[in-house]
Design a protein that fits this description.
Blueprint lengths: L2 H25 L14 E7 L2 E7 L5 H8 L18 E4 L2 E4 L12 E3 L12 H8 L9 H16 L17 H7 L10 H16 L1
Parallel strand pairs: 1-5
Antiparallel strand pairs: 1-2, 3-4, 3-5
Helix pairs in contact: 3-6
Pfam family, one: Fer2
GO molecular function: 2 iron, 2 sulfur cluster binding; metal ion binding; oxidoreductase activity, acting on the aldehyde or oxo group of donors
Keywords: 2Fe-2S, Iron, Iron-sulfur, Metal-binding, Oxidoreductase
């Protein structure tokens, strides 16, 4: 048998095997392909950027998808969808979370703030202004999550919550190493980290003043 004949017969075997497995899976009544599970929609009520929202949703919908797909708040970005990049960070009851990692139905009655709820065109939040003044972004994809995370982070410092690099666990000081450590969950693909740190430092001084 030649090499060409051997390769051809191998392809025939693989093709016929794949076809047989597909046919068998379709024939099995308990297989994933044959089973379509139905989920009962649930009512959820949230306060998003100061506005009460009530809707009926699939219980599997993430908070991120509710914000983007149902409410049109596309400032919150879907990056990795695994809680690893921080692009989807929002504030829930004042604390920062990755909205891709939580189900919307778990936040019944909660107050959610996205980047759209932080300021307006004529009255930006101090962190928004600082990011612009310090060129704290390039492509801007991660910026909404960076800003929301920074707001939550500054509140954590104000409450006296230490980080892994805090010299004084009882009275942490917002140094540049503290900012980097506390913001380490928010990734910037463009590498604008020095300007992001500068923007947060400037806004923190303005907000404290």
């Amino acid at each position: 048998m030649t090499i060409a004949e051997n390769d051809w017969s191998r392809r025939e075997v693989l093709t016929s095997t794949a076809g047989g497995l597909a046919g068998a899976s379709l024939a099995l009544p308990g297989s994933a392909l044959a089973e379509t599970r139905q989920y009962e929609a649930l009512d959820v009520r949230l306060v998003v950027n100061g506005t009460a929202q009530a809707m009926r949703i699939d219980p599997r919908v993430s908070l991120l998808d509710l914000l983007r797909e149902r409410l049109g708040l596309i400032g919150t970005k879907k990056g990795c969808d695994h809680g690893q990049c921080g692009a989807c960070t929002v504030l829930v009851n004042g604390r920062r979370i990755c909205s891709c990692l939580t189900l919307a139905v778990l936040h019944e009655g909660d107050e959610v703030t996205t980047v759209e709820g932080l300021g307006s065109r004529g009255a930006l939040h101090p962190l928004q202004s600082a990011f612009i003044a310090n060129d704290g972004f390039q492509c801007g994809f991660c910026t909404p999550g960076q800003i929301c995370s920074a707001i939550g982070m500054l509140d954590e410092v104000a409450r006296g919550e230490p980080s892994h690099v805090s010299d004084d666990l009882l009275a942490p000081v917002l140094s540049d190493p503290e900012i980097r450590e506390r913001m380490s969950g928010n990734l910037c693909r463009c590498g604008a980290y020095p300007n992001i740190v500068a923007a947060i430092r400037e806004a923190a001084g303005e907000m404290n003043a």
